[in-house]
Amino acid sequence: MQADPRALRFAAVLTTVILALVLVTGSAWLLAVQATVFALSAFGASPYGMVFKAMVKSPPRELEDARPPRFAQLVGLAFALAGLVGHATQIAPLALGATAAALFAAFLNAAFGFCLGCELYLIIRRLLPAAR
């Protein structure tokens, strides 16, 4: 499977905005929405990607392997779920820390095109021959 890198960057920008709003407002509901987006995106049904495709009609110059970004969405989901657990249990450091970690990764991708979760995927593939 292939992915449009422009759509991935667009999704990272929206994710950055949503997670920043979560930190500013303390909204567990908004974090739950982002967790849902992470889950859908990990399985190939990215809501942000669909918005991008509706807005941008030009074909990409190149495509990239969709597996690393999907793995990155799973990592984002794990952090969002940890943040939700923090909200539910009223453990503020967990809620804020997990959300901030996801925000940091999304910001790196949005601002610099560096996908931390994608790099983690590639490291795991190199270390685990069975994962190939």
Structural description of this entry:
This protein has 132 residues and is mainly alpha-helical. It has one domain. It is 76% helix and 3% strand. It is built from six helices and two strands; from the N terminus they run βαααβααα. The protein has helices spanning 5-25, 28-42, 47-55, 67-88, 92-112, 116-127; strands spanning 2-3, 64-65. A two-stranded antiparallel sheet has the order 1-2. It is globular, with a radius of gyration of 15 Å. The model has no long low-confidence stretch (mean pLDDT 95).
List how many beta strands DSSP finds.
Answer: 2
| Main sheet makeup | 2 strands, antiparallel
State the end-to-end CA separation: 15 Å
Structural class: mainly alpha
Name the strands of the widest sheet in spatial order: 1-2
Domain unit count: 1
Low-confidence stretches: none
Strand content: under 5%
> If you average the pLDDT, what whole number results?
95
Give the % helix.
Answer: over 70%
Number of helices: 6
Q: What global shape is seen?
A: globular
- Rg over CA atoms, rounded to whole Å, is 15 Å
Q: N-to-C SSE series?
A: EHHHEHHH
Helices and strands, with pairings:
Blueprint: E1 2-3, H1 5-25, H2 28-42, H3 47-55, E2 64-65, H4 67-88, H5 92-112, H6 116-127
Antiparallel strand pairs: 1-2
Which tags fit this structure?
two-stranded antiparallel ribbon; 3% strand; 2 strands; mainly alpha; 132 residues; 6 helices
Question: What's a quick, concise take on this entry?
Answer:
Helix content is 76%, strand content 3%. It is mostly helical and 132 residues long. It has one domain.
